[in-house]
Amino acid sequence: MVWRAPGAAKPRRVPWGWVALGLAGPLAAAIIAFAILQPVKVLPLGEPAPVFELMGPGGEPFRSHERDGRIVFYFLGMGRDRERTGPLLEAMAATAQALTDRGWLGRRVELAFITLDPEHDTPAELARLARERGLDRFMSAAAGEGPGLSLLTGSPVAVKLAVGTGFGLYYEPPALVDGTLRFVYQPTVIAVDGGGRVRARRPGPPAVATLVRDAELLVEEADARGASRLLFAGAHLFLCYVP
Asked: Any residues with CB less than 8 A from the CB of 47 and at least 6 apart, and which?
């Protein structure tokens, strides 16, 4: 029991319920506005990318888990399928140039072509393909950076584990049918962020503008700090995804 002098005013109680209600209204409005207006767009957080090791045209190893936090776009196709993989490689070259212009290729973003036809696409064949398509000029690595662009092959088992089992892309080895090679696969580009999560799957050949935009979104998200980081977390919470 608290003693109170005669005539003293009774202390007023703080209406905490009304205070909470007053705060809840603007907060709810802000959440609804964020969900509707979507001021920040992101790529969905997918499954962890597979861990694999393949090799480049010079026999150099490419280990998916040793990219030093760089974003990697994997271009999946077959070198001798000129009708579908040809445009895919053209998109790869144009994307490499756009990322070079931004100073990101090899420093923030890598591009890697993985052949689904490893028995034909040997390291020597990939080297020839790189020269033919003008990709070789993007393949050198500066000190402290990764290769801007890689063309990868390996044993059929290694490729199947990386692409078929790992990325979940169905394909079959090319086969002669009535004297014509039959190719069973879907040219695809898969984006993996610096944390090793799949962030986009683009049936190919996707538009270069789409690939560059995906790279911009991933770089921007990776660079976010403080309040900006919270915005990206909110974008994932409210599924503010780009198409």
From this structure: 197, 198
Domain count, the chain: 1
- What's this model's pTM, rounded to 2 decimal places? 0.85
* Residue that the structure tokens 């689904």 belong to: 116
What digits encode the pLDDT tens for the residues 25-77? 443 444 444 344 345 899 999 999 999 999 999 999 999 999 999 999 999 99
Q: Which two tokens stand for residue 162?
A: 């990386």
CATH number, domain with residue 142? 3.40.30.10
pLDDT in tens, 8-17: 556 666 565 6
Q: Contact at 8 Å (CB) between 72 and 112?
A: yes
Measured between alpha carbons, how far is 92 from 201 in angstroms, rounded to an integer? Answer: 15
- Bond before 205 cis per omega within 30 degrees: yes
Name the residue range of residue 132's domain.
Answer: 53-237
User: Is residue 58 one of the residues assigned to a domain?
Assistant: yes
22's torsion region: left (phi>0), alpha (psi -120 to 50) or beta? alpha
CA gap 43, 235 in Å, rounded? 9
Amino acid at 55: M
Average pLDDT of the chain is: 87
Query: Residues 192-207: pLDDT tens digits?
Result: 999 999 999 999 899 9
Residue 108 backbone dihedrals phi, psi, to 5 degrees: -115, -30
Tell me the CA end-to-end span of the chain in Å, nearest whole number.
Answer: 65
